[in-house]
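Q: Give me a protein?
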Amino acid sequence: MVLKTKTHLVAGLALSLLGACQSATTTSVSTPTATTAETVAEAETPAISITNPVLPGDFPDPSIAKVGDTYWATATSSNWGPVFPLLKSTNLTDWELAGHVFPNELPAWADYYFWAPEISQEGDKTYIYYTAHKKGGNLAVGIAVADSPAGPYRDLGPLVGQPHGSIDGFPMRDEKGELYLIWKEDGNSVNEPTPIWAQRLNEEHTALIGEKKELFRNTAPWEGNLVEGVSMVKRNDYFYAFYAGNGCCGHNCTYGIGVARSKSLLGPWEKYEKNPILTKGEKWTCPGHGTVFNRGNRWYMLHHAYDTRSFEFVGRQGVISEFAWTAGGWPEFRGGSSMPATKAPVATARTFRDEFNQTTLLPSWQWPVEERPTVAVRSGRLELTARPQHSGAVLGQHTTSADYSATTTLLNPAKLPAGTVAGIAAHGDPENTLALTAGGGKLQLWQLEKGKQKNIGEVKLPAATALTLRLQAQNSTQFRFDWSADGGKTWQSLPGGSGPISGAYLPPWDRGVRVGVLAKGPATATVAFEDFSLENQLLSAQAGGNAPAGK
């Protein structure tokens, strides 16, 4: 990820390595209508040289829109804050994290599970259609609006929240130009089918009007217990609904992409007899849930998939797949229905370093969405106020590979307030953590699994004004921890002489592991870190390769 924040990010931190993107007149499919982008004559356009992932790291359910000469993307943030990243690029190669849809306060009506944002430009307004869990209720589709893609965004509240849950909102205008909301009823959560619904949305984007109409539901064997994540375009005589089916997440995922079409938005809809049109390959698996876009006569889909080496530990990463239209008017992905491996990346993996020499926290830091920590950045230090519950106060960075190393410098470890520990950690969620911390006169390696803490090893805290702590991950699941009292000149492992510690339990079902710092203890305690760095090693998955062990 190319975050333009001066010295804090080492060169080579790129969200994608697509190669040079040729200059050409482009069209964009963003909130498609019957008379605009997708029906413009499709000019000849050079192909994009794609090297996936274009959004490395945990960026599920990605969405893309072109505003002027800039591509904007966003993705699921789930239970990590800040909510919904805003990424921009002029070439689909170099991406900048420009901010977040909800960088500070959460929408008043929602509390967690921030999923599937769909970015859409209509006139001079940018809309984000998103899913969140309604306080005291179930999942619902909401909407936010801004005067530019960068924000700030104003929440307009929820549009629909059915008893079983409503998710994956997508805007589409019908053949008359009338605006509709497309969404999925989350029936699979209660072992029922999953209808895809359409209903008129007023032009103020504040309320649904009229009656809802079912478009289609999961009926084909490959779709399993669900269809979801619909992205629509209108091309020639047909509306096309690209959708995901089957199991989205985790090591045993079965996700794939299908397509249906209709001459009228409200149907009848016909599913393609050759579905699924995109499924797993050796390098990438479980593709699904994304947005279709075109550059002239070339068509692409930005969607997510797991790298078969890192799977759920890195998370569902953003990839671009190209497709073409058959003589019969159906989409077929380049290389067939199995996701192909692409050439090896030509630049270094994500390397992040923060010396905390700015006045605010860098935008790539994340935290549990319901437990936002209190932080201050001043005088080259991160000051993190402790929390007593769960894993404590947590800050993390997403990883991009199965193998990585992270280090931090904890200041004045012997002077931490009573009952306070602080250090480095691999974070799954607030109840699943693996950490090396200082405090109470000792260095301690511990794990929190399903809320239950277990101590793995400890040593007496050395006499040092600063302590460097290191975490190393191999093959996603195996962790080693070391400490240094002389600024990293010499290292000692904890527990000494033993093998790696398994972190296979860490990732939740719908998101990847974060690596960062924590402070656990009374809310009156504050700890200080001098720096943090994360180095990912970029290795390609091999045929029949080394996938991590399942949980």
Remarks:
- Helices lie at 311-314.
- DSSP finds one helix and 37 strands in the chain.
